[in-house]
Structures are given as C-alpha cells and as structure tokens.
Amino acid sequence: MMNQVTKMTFEPNHANKESGIWIGGDKAYVQEWPLNPEGDPLIHLFSIDCNQLAKHIHTATLPADTLISVFSTYSATDYFLDQVTYTGDELEWNENIVGGCTLVSVTTSPYMSHSPGACIPSCGVAFSEVELDEQEFPAFSFLTSSPPNGIHGITHLLDQYGIVCQIYSGDFPAPYQDILGLTDANGYLFLRNDIEASEVPLAGIFFVQTA
Questions:
Q1: How far is CA 86 from CA 79, 97, 195, in A?
Q2: Which of 132, 37, 32 lies closest to 83 in space, CA to CA?
C-alpha cells in the first residue's frame, strides 16, 4: 500500500512566501516573541499561511484563515535535544511541550513580531508529490495527513490532534542542519482537530524525535 505525501524542498535565499509555507526568517506570527524556560528566545523554524498553502496543497487539511508559526529551542554550542524531544513520556510533555521549549502560535491575526536573536536564513519551499511505501521511513520534509513511519508514542494524541507535516533537520540551510538537535532528527507539527483560532490551549504542538 502506498501513501501519497507532498515533499517540501527548501530553497535557500529565495523567500517564495507565495507557496504558503516558508522556513526561517526574522519575523513570525506572534504578539510577543516566545522564550524558553531558561529565558532564551526560541528560534523561528517555519510559518504557514493556511489559505495560501491550500491553493497548492491538498494532502494536508488545514483550518481556513489561520496563520501558524513554529518555534523551538536551539543552541549552536550546547546540547539541547532532550529539551525538544517528545516520545509520549509525561515528563517530556510537561517540561518540553507545556514548559515552552517548543511553541506553536496559531492565530487569525496577520500581526508579526521580529526575532530578538539569531535566525535561520529565510527559505522558500517547493512542492512535489511523492508516494511512500508502507515500509518506508522517510528522511525528508513533507506535508501529510497520516502519521509517518518512524514516529512513535503519539497514538494518544490522535483523538484531539492531526499531523500537518514532518520536518527533517538536515533539510535546513547551513549552518542549521542540526536545528532539531541532530542532522537526522525529525520534527512533527500537530494541530488540534477542534481548533478555534487560538481559543484552545495548545492549539498546535511541535516536537522532535530521532531514530
């Protein structure tokens, strides 16, 4: 059995926000720039304009009139993988997801804030349709409506959340291929199924897993 997904190829130095999703940059859809529990600014990973993305992509079901920005803890010098990982463990959930080591801003307001710190070079995204074998463990970034092979410990989330995409750390531009802790790490964006703008807590969640 094959599963069709939409592969995302990052295009360094080419903003291409017309695609509806872009990587990095110094602006994001958030009122105040988020800080992790240690008081350090999170780094902006990517943003999505759901209406714009829906013009191009039909493999992911996204809420209309919604703007999403995804942030994560990052350090170029210190080990941080354990702070952004979630594998179904309650301690990881409380300290990493609820604690704010990653954050997903979900809003209907186009207001944007500027990053107070370093940022990933802005990249556009190009799309291509790919079929995955049911035994395949994809090591690339893609949009999907079905949890991919390799992600584990999240079955309990699926009552309230649906997956939007897998982001592969090694796809990011230099020197940020370790943006998720390791070059072969995957990040996963989930959105609540009953989302009403940002009225529900944790309207979106983002976390990292590695093989």
A1: 16, 8, 22
A2: 37
Q: How would you class 44 by CB atoms within 10 Å of its CB: exposed for 0-12, middle for 13-18, buried for 19 or more?
A: buried
- Within a 10 A sphere around the Cβ of 77, how many other Cβ atoms? 5
- CA-based nearest residue to 118, from 45, 56, 18, 57: 45
Q: Where are the alpha helices (DSSP H) in 21-141?
A: 50-54, 81-84, 90-92
Residue 1 is predicted with a pLDDT of: 60
The Cα–Cα gap between 45 and 28 comes to 9
Contact predicate 180/86, CB 8 Å: no
Convert the pLDDT of each residue in 66-122 to its tens digit: 999 999 999 999 999 999 999 999 999 999 999 999 999 999 999 999 999 999 999
pTM of the model: 0.94
Which residue has 């105040």 as its token pair? 32
Q: What type of residue sits at position 57? A: I
For residue 5, the SS3 value is strand
